[in-house]
From TrEMBL:
<feature type="domain" description="N-acetyltransferase">
    <location>
        <begin position="1"/>
        <end position="144"/>
    </location>
</feature>
<keyword id="KW-0012">Acyltransferase</keyword>
<dbReference type="Pfam" id="PF13527">
    <property type="entry name" value="Acetyltransf_9"/>
</dbReference>
<protein>
    <submittedName>
        <fullName>Acetyltransferase</fullName>
        <ecNumber>2.3.1.-</ecNumber>
    </submittedName>
</protein>
<dbReference type="InterPro" id="IPR050276">
    <property type="entry name" value="MshD_Acetyltransferase"/>
</dbReference>
<dbReference type="GO" id="GO:0016747">
    <property type="term" value="F:acyltransferase activity, transferring groups other than amino-acyl groups"/>
</dbReference>
<dbReference type="InterPro" id="IPR016181">
    <property type="entry name" value="Acyl_CoA_acyltransferase"/>
</dbReference>
<keyword id="KW-0808">Transferase</keyword>
<dbReference type="InterPro" id="IPR000182">
    <property type="entry name" value="GNAT_dom"/>
</dbReference>
Length: 164
């Protein structure tokens, strides 16, 4: 298995893997595939990585810019991240996340946020921090990871694609 940036030819397979991965998830609104497509269409898919094996996409992770109090401060949102159900539990999602975070750091990003399970995302260094808030979301599920010493403060807004 190897991880690479998506190509235009990957879009349909990414959507299929994303929809398949989220289909059994109780808290999902089943819009994750549409969100990835909308981010791509809006040119807001800053980083899109796939895990591929024998020509088949097994997983995907998306990173897109966020605003903090209405300003671009060099921070990004992680998600959706998906792995085909037949291959979940093998560490594919973790490899995608680690590679994506490493690329963001190398490219000068200031940090990353996500909405997700603290028990899972804590292993990557994410944690809740009261200085960054996502209105309407329980604080413990909105987590951040600063890539340097500075932590901004304010309300976070994701790209409008997440309103899909």
């Amino acid at each position: 298995m190897h991880i690479r940036k998506e190509t235009p030819e990957d879009a349909a397979e990414i959507r299929q893997v994303t929809e398949t991965a989220f289909r059994p998830v109780a808290y999902s609104n089943q819009k994750e595939g549409e969100i990835v497509d909308a981010l791509r269409a809006a040119k807001a898919l800053t980083l899109s990585l796939v895990a591929e094996e024998n020509g088949q996409i097994l997983g995907h992770v998306a990173f897109s810019p966020i605003l903090i109090d209405g300003e671009n401060k060099g921070w990004y949102g992680l998600g959706p991240v998906s792995v085909h159900p037949d291959r979940q539990g093998e560490g594919i999602g973790g490899k995608l996340i680690r590679e994506g975070l490493a690329i963001l750091r190398r490219e000068g990003a200031k940090g990353c946020v996500l909405l997700g399970d603290p028990g899972y995302y804590g292993r990557f260094g994410f944690k809740a921090d009261s200085r960054l808030k996502l209105p309407g979301v329980p604080a413990e599920y909105f987590q951040c990871l600063a890539f340097g010493p500075d932590m901004p403060e304010g309300d976070v807004a994701y790209n409008a694609a997440f309103d899909t």
